[in-house]
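job 3f2a | input accepted
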Amino acid sequence: MTHTDHSIDLEQSWLSRLHAEFDQPYMQALKQFLLDEKQQGKQILPKGNLWFNALNSTPFEQVKVVVLGQDPYPTPGHAHGLSFSVLPGVTPLPKSLLNINRELLDDLNINNSHTGFLQPWANQGVLLLNAVLTVEAGKPNAHQNHGWEQFTDKIIHLLAQEREHLVFILWGAYAQKKGKFIDRQKHFVIESPHPSPLSAYRGFYGSKPFSRSNTYLEQYGKTPINWQLPPI
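job 3f2a | predicted structure (232 res):
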């Protein structure tokens, strides 16, 4: 997983800022961990060419909104490297995503119940970043604390320092802890409970993150996000 490894194809604006990370001891240890898992016959999700899909879909200068997730869906055929998103045709949708759709309908009267494929958001500047970029099939959080968190912290630091007037959407305590250093004078941080069924009723519903993001972007002369997903 070094930057000379051609199996890792990282978009240039990110590679220029992150290439040194791949030589760090923590990243070497992560690479070894993932190789060992693979050699033991464990299925790693998503596929290797999708680990960096969030970065490859949304170049550094094009990021407008960051939606921070925890780790990929552990069900084969679901995750494709964008937080909260599933591949086209996945039904039923994961419960958190159903609740995101419900809040969007309430907030902006946009109905996305037909899909959970959020790639069109990423293409418009929504960085759908998970804190941990891989998972073992069937085992949520199996790859926590093996180095990914340090790598994704670096991504958030770079955005918070080098860019201004970004929206950071931090759903749940995990994301909020990860984004605690973001300068609230320089960026707009939206915090609420997580959209999972366990916590959505504690303040995720009614938090209006989509309209609030767009209002802020427009305030700073940026094109708002079209949250409506096209038919698949």
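job 3f2a | The longest helix spans residues 25-39.
job 3f2a | closed
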